[in-house]
Each structure stands twice: as structure tokens, then as C-alpha cells.
Design goal:
- InterPro entries: Mo_CF_biosynth-C_arc, MoaC, MoaC_sf, Mopterin_CF_biosynth-C_dom.
- Pathway: Cofactor biosynthesis; molybdopterin biosynthesis.
- The chain is an alpha+beta fold and about 170 residues long.
- The protein has a single domain, classed as Molybdopterin cofactor biosynthesis C (MoaC) domain (Alpha-Beta Plaits), CATH 3.30.70.
- Helix content is about 30%, strand content about 30%.
- The chain is built from 5 helices and 5 strands.
- The protein has a 5-stranded antiparallel beta sheet, with helices on one face.
- Helix 3 runs antiparallel to helix 5.
- The longest helix is centred in the C-terminal third of the chain and has 23 residues.
- The radius of gyration is 18 Å and the shape is elongated.
- The termini are close together.
């Protein structure tokens, strides 16, 4: 096996001009990856949910009425990874070989990192992004009663910073 190579997370000038999910007439299409060789692939994505400090304290104390927030968010993240192909129209169904989730808790936020691994013909960055997005949405859902203000809004709650941190591919 060759050493893992870091792929750029932003398109290069050459690839940015060519849309791969549309044909010459502009019709959406799934990319044909049939002729590509299988590779070991890994992608890592991250994001942050900002919360009131009292909500973070309740999460850490496992004192949220709906249950264990981080355990439930972890399950939601893994489930989202496995079902990405069902929610992103041109995404291939890929064999997921591993999912790692890691939460980092601060006074007023929780960061989630999701790493996804597969062996196949296409990458797994969309799966990592879906895992982060869903995991953070689960945190919001489980804590929304504590986060609501008197008008039913969420002035202190937001999700941001969702991005692909790394994308790796090794030939097999």
C-alpha cells in the first residue's frame, strides 16, 4: 500500500470549472465511478454548536430531560453517516468500515468531530459532513427546551464551522 495522501478540500482551478454532477445539457446525473480502482479512504469533518453555559452544564451533568445528549447525538451521527446516500441525491451508497465521533465540551459550546472510513471507488467526506450536521442537530433537539427564550426563539444557539478537515486516499 502507498502512503495516505492528503487531497485538497477545495476544488482546484482545473476542477472548479467542470461540474461533474451534470451532463452537457445541464441535467443532474450521478458520476460513474465504475472504472475507478478501490482505495482506502478517510474523511474527517467538524462543527460546533453554541449553547448557553447552563445548558452545557446540564449536558455534562446528564441532567437534560430528554436523556443523555452526547450518547444520543453519537448514535444520530453514526446513523446519518450510514444513510447519507439516501438524503444527498447524487451520493453513492458506500460501504462504511468505521465511524469515530469525538465531542469536545467547552463552557458555551460543544464541538463534534466525525471521522469516516471506507474502502471503495469514491470518497466519504459527504458522510462525515452528514454525521457532524446530524449529530449537532440532535444536540439542539435534545436541549431546545433549555435554549428557548421567552418568545420561543434561540438567540444564543447556533451551529457553525462545519467543514471537512481532512480527506485521505491510499491505493490498495
Amino acid at each position: 500500500m502507498s502512503e495516505p495522501t492528503e487531497e485538497p478540500t477545495q476544488p482546484t482551478t482545473d476542477t472548479a470549472d467542470k461540474l461533474t454532477h451534470t451532463d452537457d445539457s445541464g441535467t443532474a446525473q450521478m458520476v460513474d465511478v465504475g472504472d475507478k480502482p478501490d482505495s482506502d479512504r478517510r474523511a474527517v469533518a467538524e462543527g460546533t454548536i453554541h449553547l448557553q453555559p447552563s445548558t452545557v452544564e446540564a449536558i455534562e451533568a446528564n441532567d437534560v430531560a430528554k436523556g443523555d445528549v452526547l450518547a444520543t447525538a453519537r448514535v444520530g451521527a453514526v446513523q446519518a453517516v450510514k444513510h447519507t446516500w439516501e438524503s444527498i441525491p447524487m451520493c453513492h451508497q458506500i460501504p462504511i468500515t468505521n465511524v469515530d465521533t469525538e465531542f469536545s465540551v467547552a463552557d458555551d459550546r460543544i464541538e463534534l468531530t466525525v471521522a469516516v472510513e471506507t474502502t471503495g471507488k469514491t470518497g466519504c467526506e459527504m458522510e462525515a459532513l452528514e454525521g457532524v450536521t446530524t449529530g449537532l442537530n440532535v444536540v439542539w433537539d435534545m436541549c431546545k427546551a433549555a435554549e428557548k427564550d421567552g418568545d420561543g426563539g434561540y438567540p444564543d444557539t447556533r451551529i457553525d464551522g462545519i467543514c471537512v478537515v481532512t480527506k485521505q486516499k491510499k491505493s490498495i
